[in-house]
Structures are given as C-alpha cells and as structure tokens.
Amino acid sequence: MLLGVVVMHTGAPDAAAQSVAPDAQAVRAARAAQNDAIAAGDLDAVTAFWTDDITVRRALGAPVSGRAAARAAFEPPAGAPASGAAATTPRIVYRRIPNEVEVSAQWPLAFETGVWEGREGTPNGPVIIGGKFSAQWVKRDGRWLIRSEVFVALTCAGAGCSLTAVP
Fold first, then answer.
1. H helical segments located in 9-127
2. What is the pLDDT of residues 33-68, one digit of tens each?
3. Mean predicted confidence (pLDDT) in 147-167
4. Which of 111, 112, 35, 126 is nearest to 74 (CA)?
5. What is the mean pLDDT of the chain?
6. What pTM did the predictor assign?
7. Are 70 and 44 in contact (CB under 8 A)?
8. CATH number for the segment(s) 16-75+90-162
9. Angle at the Cα of 102 (from 101 to 108), degrees rounded to 5?
10. Which residues contact 138 (CB under 8 A, 6 or more apart)?
11. Measured between alpha carbons, how far is 145 from 65 in angstroms, rounded to an integer?
12. Does residue 32 carry a pLDDT above 60?
C-alpha cells in the first residue's frame, strides 16, 4: 500500500524564520563586537556582553562562574608587559568565530556554535591554541547577552601546548 504525502508551499518564507533572522544577526554582531573588545584588551567592554551569572567551561576544563571570575580569566598574566615593555609571558588574544546561530521562536534564547582561536600577542599573531565552542544567549531588555559558554581545546602549537588543565 502506498501512502501519499502532500507538501504545500505558499511561496512565502516561513514566518518564524523571518521573525528570528534579525535576532540571529544581532547575536552575530554582539559576538563581533565582543571579539573587537577582546582584541583591544577592553575588559569593561568584554564583560558587557555577559549576564551577571555567566558560567564558562574553559578550554581545558576549568569552570568559571560569575562575571567577576570570567573577567579575571581575561586579565593579563603575571609577567605581561606594562605599556610597551617586553613580555615574559605573552598575552593570548582570543577570537570566537560563529558557524551557526539558532534563535528560538518561542523564548528569548539563542544557541551559537563555532570555532575559537587564541593568538599569541596580537590579533594577528600566530594561533597557539584553538577548538570549538558553544554559547547560550539570552535577550534581556532588548540586548543579547551570553549566559553560558563551553570551550573545548582541540589544537595547540608552541606556548599554547604548555597550558594546563585544572583537575
């Protein structure tokens, strides 16, 4: 016995897809702005994209809870240069590159996945560590903010391979 399936197409794009497209673009724009802030070393601007209760699972497994702790993870390492001095420990400039942003048509939530990289010293320095990430975004007062992020390190080179995980 054969069962037929009828698919109707009205020619108009799906209304739900149309309603979330601007939000997906807003999430991508927020991520790009946060990447710019990271590159500039502007920690106040970096943290402006997080909820107060952000949770992060860092690349090698260390958990981070709360905006203050997440900000501390971006503080320059001991031995980092002060205004042009030579560095004993290089700064790592992180960049998140979204592959996909999916926005809920039901709730003020978005899910982002992509790849990340850590470059030595500057935004154009050599990539020394990288991997994949995912993030949960929440829309509050018309702004998209990151509530949770998970980073998984998959590659390393040079100084990036000397980083250690927290048990």
1. 15-40, 43-47, 67-74
2. 999 999 999 999 999 999 999 999 999 999 999 999
3. 84
4. 35
5. 86
6. 0.82
7. no
8. 3.10.450.50
9. 115
10. 51, 108, 109, 110, 144, 145, 147
11. 15
12. yes
